[in-house]
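so my prof wants the structure for this chain in the tokens format not the other one, which i didnt know existed until like an hour ago. anyway here's the sequence
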Amino acid sequence: MTPDPHDPNPGTPNPGTPNPDHPNSGAPDPHDPNTPAPDDDLTTIRVAQFLPHPPAKVWRALTEPELLAQWQMPGSEDFRLEVGHRYTLTALPRPNAAFSGTVDVRVLAYEPGRMLSVGWADANASRPADWTITWTLEQEGRGTRLFLVHEGFDPDDPTQMMARKIMDGGWRSHVMRSLGNALDRM
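here's what i got, hopefully its the right format
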């Protein structure tokens, strides 16, 4: 790689530049201080949350229907940890974000105890959204660092940018707090 003569910090990797020495080269590393801030990528929401519970317990809260029902939207009790499984979540409609209140969910992939990825689509959207939500768990001390990546927003669509703003706040406050409370009760 040729150094940038205008770089005030030569030798410091530029955010978003793949590091060939890094094991996940090309993939954003949420632990790397050079990873762009979440607002730099309008197509994605990234949340990292420490939970003072072991990964196995957090995994159960993410994948057992009776536990999901304690902290996720109604309909989560129909979840099954099976690639291709479909179910429906319901919430209050948000006309300002063109959200009908009904989310069609499909399980896309999982690695037991480590990662769960689901697709979300508004069932009745006038401007269809096709999002992917991926939860990744990493042990941190006696607890778990939970990473959420919600991707697929269209930065050229003002309605989707409104949805991104609303969901970003919801993931960071309401959802993580509800998950934490459910874990505390387990």
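also thought this was worth mentioning. The beta strands are 44-51, 86-90, 102-111, 115-122, 130-140, 143-151.
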